[in-house]
Amino acid sequence: MKKAVVVMSGGMDSTLCATLALKQGYEIIALHFDYNQRTMKREKQAFNDICDRLNITKRLSLDVSFIAKIGGNSLTDKSMQVPKTGLSDGVPNTYVPYRNGIFLSIAAAVAEKNDAKAIYIGVVEEDSSGYPDCRAEFIKTIQNAINLGTKDSTKIEIKMPLVSLSKADIVRVSLENNSPLELTWSCYESEEMACGVCDSCRLRLNGFKKANSTDPIKYKF
Amino acid sequence: MKKAVVVMSGGMDSTLCATLALKQGYEIIALHFDYNQRTMKREKQAFNDICDRLNITKRLSLDVSFIAKIGGNSLTDKSMQVPKTGLSDGVPNTYVPYRNGIFLSIAAAVAEKNDAKAIYIGVVEEDSSGYPDCRAEFIKTIQNAINLGTKDSTKIEIKMPLVSLSKADIVRVSLENNSPLELTWSCYESEEMACGVCDSCRLRLNGFKKANSTDPIKYKF
């Protein structure tokens, strides 16, 4: 059975990736990262709930808390404020330096070790926070790097099925494919009820609204 | 003062990189990785001894022990044997899947956070163990990926001054530049005295021999 490593945060984008990978017939190795981000516990719970629902037994949850030690972002540095007044131009302070580069490099090692031929990542290029490590051109280039920097027999394709979708598209495709939206977590700041006002909550709520649907999770506001 | 992140294992290649970066006028951020490899303590000691000697105060030692959790190599998996009968064709079991890809991705995050414009890595392409993540083409491609996956204002050059050198060249250039060879550690297996028979010891000893020099560190054999 063909294998894929799926980078899963517990959010709705990576959950849809897992749903689509299963539909494509892949056996999934679910890869999750803990890095002392504000909502670390809640994301890990979402990750496990989603894997339970999707019957994914191969799970690897890795401690990458060195990311918090490097710092420079408001998700790990509690002395910084997560923006709550709406998306602005430029790269916001929730950008974690080269996070997807680090995650994909680790995913490549996991894929090589386990003979997986694909890595799924739920990057979204346009309808997003404007993180540079979510751009399609970056993903294509790091795929080349990974194939040059691993054994000649290792051939890995990085799949990014959501890269050109809007958040509304993601909600629609999730509903069509029974992706468990109700188990996902997107909020950057809160672990009890989603804050509703951070960029991640705003993008998510806007997606549901534009898809004429209602978000099944609870919000403070 | 221009800044460079130097990936430093404690071995003679990365130590020469640090020596050369200082000579080029860089302020150095020394980056070391612990990953539960067999000689972790000894390498960390070498790293600190070398930084002390070179007056490098900015040091970042990061726990990347998830590498041992991924496994698939004899440096972290003690149930596997480190080869001791000489270099063979193909990729040996001391190859840690995509290690330099992971290290360079983390170095990129450190560089972006700290406004460093260069990353030094002591990869050697020919006179080496044949690891795929030590090839120049890989390093050039991951440099492109890093610049696409970080902020547009972030421009990072990956410098690999040793990539085309032989081990004998590295010994000669180290001696010419007073790189502290006596403080470095290369052995894959032992922490007291170098084993002298693993691939890394063999490459090192052969380099000293061809450079008509004597290795200042102690060996069992």
UniProtKB/TrEMBL annotation, chains A, B:
ATP binds at M8, S9, G10, G11, M12, D13, S14, T15, L16, C17, A18. Its cofactor is Zn(2+). The keyword ATP-binding applies. Its EC number is 6.3.4.20. The keyword Electron transport does not apply. Binds 1 zinc ion per subunit. It comes from the Bacteria. InterPro entries: QueC (IPR018317), Rossmann-like_a/b/a_fold (IPR014729). Keywords: ATP-binding, Ligase, Metal-binding, Nucleotide-binding, Queuosine biosynthesis, Zinc. It catalyses: 7-carboxy-7-carbaguanine + NH4(+) + 2 ATP = 7-cyano-7-carbaguanine + 2 AMP + 2 diphosphate + 2 H(+). GO terms for molecular function: ligase activity. Pfam families: QueC (PF06508). Pathway: Purine metabolism; 7-cyano-7-deazaguanine biosynthesis. Zn(2+) binds at C187, C195, C198, C201. Belongs to the QueC family. Catalyzes the ATP-dependent conversion of 7-carboxy-7-deazaguanine (CDG) to 7-cyano-7-deazaguanine (preQ(0)). NCBIfam families: 7-cyano-7-deazaguanine synthase QueC (TIGR00364). This is 7-cyano-7-deazaguanine synthase.
